[in-house]
What does this fold into?
Amino acid sequence: MKVYTHSHQEQKEYLDYKIKSAIWRFYFDIVRVIMYLRLLVSLIFNYKVYNTVNCVHTRTHMKAYVAEFVGTAILVIGGCGAAIFSGAYLGPLGVAIAFGLSLTLISYAFGHISGGHFNPAVTVAMTLTHKLNKKVTSMYIVAQLLGALVGGFILFFIAQGTSATTVGFASNALLGDTTLLSGFLIEVLLTMILCLVAIETTATRFPRGFAGITLGATLTLIHLISIPLTNTSVNPARSFGVAFFAGGPAVTYLWVFFVAPVLGAIVAVYLYRYMQHPE
It folds into this structure.
């Protein structure tokens, strides 16, 4: 009796099929989790509506959500992509500049459409300063998380066909001897700085046309400070977008890079209110 055995090529194709199926199942699980997060955020922010927007989910708002989605995806591709594919050649300085240039690019490309947040922490800060309607906060955050996830998926897919290593995958974690407290505090502090600058760039007194350059330079400086410590997050979406493709500590400590930036945004709002006079 002849026993049929699978060829090496058939085994490889079957393994590729199983891997792709697992990735897609994982992707849809993440989307389901994001929808639950949207519901949670809606419950938190769904109260008094300020007059910055009169109604929710109009065509203008949909354009803003798409801008946040695409912009955040570009931020992940530009910044994390530089770290993954060129980090060995660029070093921390080059990666910091890549993140800064990416933010500058998307700020000028999409800022006039959505306000140019591309970061849930910035969205929280803008909401608490009444510069963004609480009714659209949850959709902004969902768009950012999905955009970051798509950006991370694109990088992961590209990396499979290159010699680039996916170990670490430009994810955020506590590097070297960095303790949990030190990593948490540096993320709070640097996110506070980023959000203070972001809030200030929306003020009428701020010079027109300089917001993108200012935010890009700020993000570059922030990365130069904390890349050796946490690989620099200051953006929950940026951390979320690559964490699950890296696995390990990136997933274990993902909560740090959600809680710390949001706390930094809240601190920035109260500090801004204390220092600034009403416009």
